[in-house]
Amino acid sequence: MPSLPTFVGLDYHQDLVQVCVLDSEGRTLANRSVRNEADLIARFALQHGTPQRVAIEACCGAADLAEELVTHRNLPVQLAHPGYVARMKRSPDKTDLADAQLLADLARVNYLPSVWLAPEATRQLRRLVRHRAQLVRRRRDVKLRIRGLLRENRVPSPGGTPWTKKWLTWLQETDDLAPSDRWLVEDHLEELTSLGRRIRAVEAKIRHTVEDDPVVAKLLTMPGVGLVTAVTLRAEIGRFDRFTRGKQLARFCGVTPRNASSGQRQADAGLIKAGNPDLRTVLIELGHRLIRQTSGPWTKLATGMLSRGKPKNVVVAAVANRWVRWLHHELRRETPQADRVLEQAV
C-alpha cells in the first residue's frame, strides 16, 4: 500500500482539514477530517500510498500549511486558484467531502489551476505592505469625514492646499463650526495624527526589512519609483522569473486591456478586473509620474498616443502596461538571490 501512487486533496479550515486520497484510477481510498496539524495530515496521507500531487485551495492560512508540508514532510503540495476551482464544480451544493474530492481529482488528472506558493519571507513582507495600505486608506477616510463636516456647516475654504500646516492651523482656529462638530473635528484630527505616526512606523519597518534586497535596490534606481512602489512590486510579485513573458506579468498586475469581443463585435472594456488592487494602484500612479517627465521613452509614447486622440486614462494605463513588460525583462534574473537576502532579513 505505501508504494501505491495517490493524489490528495485538502479542504482547509481553521481547526480541521478534510483530506481526500484517490488512487490513479480515481477511486476514493479515504476521505475524512484531520486536525489541522502538518504531522497528522502527512501521516494520514502516507498511510494510503505515496502522494504524487497534493492540492489545497489558496486561502488564509493555507500557504503556511502548504509550505510546512513541502519543507518538513517533503510532500508535493500545490496551491490552487479558488476562483477557477469553483467554476469546475459539477454541483452547486457545497460539502467539505466534495470539495476535497474535487481538488484530489483535479490533481489526479493534472488539471489543477495552480498558483505560486510564496515563501514565508515574501508573505511577511506582503503583510507589512498591506498593513501600510490599510492605514493609508483609513487616513483618507478620516480626511473625507473632516471635509464632509466642513461642507455640512458651509464653512468657506480659506484657499491654498488642504492638509498643509497652514491649512490645519486654520481648521483648528476657525469659529464657523457648531460646538458638536468642532468636537468631532478635533477627534478626527487626533486620529489623523495617530495614523500618520503609525504609517511612518510601518514604513520604517519596511525600509529596514528590504534595506539589503537587491531587487528593491534596483527598483529604487529607476525613474519615478519610490519606496512604496518598489516594496509593493517586490511583495506582490515576488519572483519575476515565475512569468515566462512580460505580458503575463502585466496581466497579473491588472494593467492589461479586457477583451469584450463576440461574433462580429470587436471591442475592449477597460482594464481587467483581476489582480491585486494595491499593485495596480501603484502602477497607475507610476504611469502618471512617468509621462510627466520632460524626456524619455515613456513621455514619447504618451505624447504619441495623446496626439492620436487617445484619452488620458488610456494613455496612463498603456504606459504602465509597457513599463511592467519592460520591468520583467530587467528583473527576471535578479530574484533568486534576492529571495535569500529577504529571507535572512525577515
Characterization of this structure:
- This protein is α/β, with parallel strands linked by helices and 346 residues long.
- It has 3 domains: 5-115, Nucleotidyltransferase, domain 5, CATH 3.30.420.10; 120-209; 214-345, no CATH class.
- The chain has helices at 38-47, 62-73, 82-87, 96-108, 120-152, 165-173, 179-209, 214-220, 227-237, 246-252, 277-291, 297-307, 312-331, 335-345; strands at residues 5-12, 16-23, 28-35, 50-57, 77-80, 114-115, 257-259, 268-271.
- The strands form 2 sheets. It has a 6-stranded mixed beta sheet.
- 29% of the residues are buried.
- The model has no long low-confidence stretch (mean pLDDT 92).
- GO terms for molecular function: DNA binding; transposase activity.
Mean pLDDT: 92
> What percentage of the residues does DSSP assign to strands (E)?
5-15%
- Shape category: globular
Structural class: alpha/beta
Low-confidence stretches are none
- The helix fraction, in percent, is 55-70%
The span between the termini is 42 Å
| Number of contiguous helices | 14
Round the Cα radius of gyration to an integer and report it: 25 Å
What's the total count of β strands? 8
Main β-sheet, spatial strand arrangement: 3-2-1-4-5-6
Q: How many domains make up the 3D coordinates?
A: 3
Task: Provide the succession of SSEs.
Answer: EEEHEHEHHEHHHHHHEEHHHH
Domain Transposase IS110-like N-terminal: 8-152
InterPro entries: Transp_IS110-like_N, Transpos_IS110, Transposase_20
Protein name: Transposase IS116/IS110/IS902 family protein
Pfam families: DEDD_Tnp_IS110 (PF01548), Transposase_20 (PF02371)
